[in-house]
Design brief:
Length: 178
C-alpha cells in the first residue's frame, strides 16, 4: 500500500469518525472505544519490535506507542469495571485491515505507511479523549487528564520521525500525514 493510499484510507476513516463523534459520546462508548484503540496501539507499536532493518526513529515510535498502551491497560480495565462497561477483546475492522496491509509491505514503503497510520491514529485517539473530557464522570475526566499528555508526546515523536524520514528521501516524499 502506498503512502497516498494510506492517506486516503485514513482520511476516509477520520471523516467517518468525525461524523459519528457529532453524536453524544457516552461513558460506555468512550471506554469501549478507548480500550479498542489501546489494543490496536499495542499491536501497531509492537509491529516494529523485531525488524532491525527499520530506522531507529520508527523503533522509538513503536516503543512509545506500545509502552503507552501497556500502561493504559490497567487503568482502562479499572474504568470499565467502575462504570460497568463490558469490554471486547478484538481490534476494530479499520485497525485490523491496516495492520494486515502493513504486514505485507517492507522497507521505505512500510516506514512511510506505518508512520502515517500512527500519526492519524494518535490524532484520532486525542480527539476521542478530548471529546470524553466533558462526559461528566470524574473518573473519566481524571483518566483523560492523565492520558492526554502521553498521547500528545507520542504524536509529537511520530511527527518528528516522519519529518526526519521524509527529509532523508525528498524525492520519494509524500504529503505530510497531518
Amino acid at each position: 500500500m502506498t503512502a497516498r493510499a494510506a492517506a486516503v484510507a485514513a482520511s476516509a476513516f477520520l471523516s467517518l469518525a468525525a461524523a459519528s463523534a457529532q453524536e453524544a459520546l457516552t461513558i460506555e462508548d468512550f471506554v469501549r472505544q478507548a480500550a479498542e484503540d489501546n489494543r490496536a496501539d499495542a499491536e501497531i507499536g509492537g509491529m516494529v519490535r523485531n525488524d532491525p532493518a527499520l530506522p531507529q526513529g520508527v523503533h522509538r515510535v513503536g516503543e512509545a506507542v506500545a509502552g503507552t498502551a501497556r500502561r493504559l491497560d490497567g487503568p482502562l480495565a479499572d474504568l470499565a469495571q467502575s462504570h460497568q462497561v463490558r469490554l471486547g477483546s478484538g481490534l476494530g475492522e479499520q485497525d485490523r485491515q491496516m495492520i494486515q496491509q502493513l504486514s505485507r509491505i517492507q522497507g521505505d514503503e512500510f516506514t512511510r505507511d506505518y508512520l502515517q497510520f500512527v500519526i492519524n491514529d494518535l490524532e484520532r485517539d486525542i480527539k476521542l479523549y478530548q471529546d470524553a473530557a466533558g462526559i461528566g464522570s470524574t473518573a473519566v475526566g481524571r483518566f483523560v487528564e492523565e492520558t492526554l499528555p502521553a498521547l500528545r508526546a507520542n504524536l509529537a515523536l511520530a511527527r518528528r520521525v516522519w519529518d526526519e524520514q521524509t527529509a532523508q528521501a525528498p524525492e520519494e516524499q509524500g504529503s505530510s500525514p497531518e
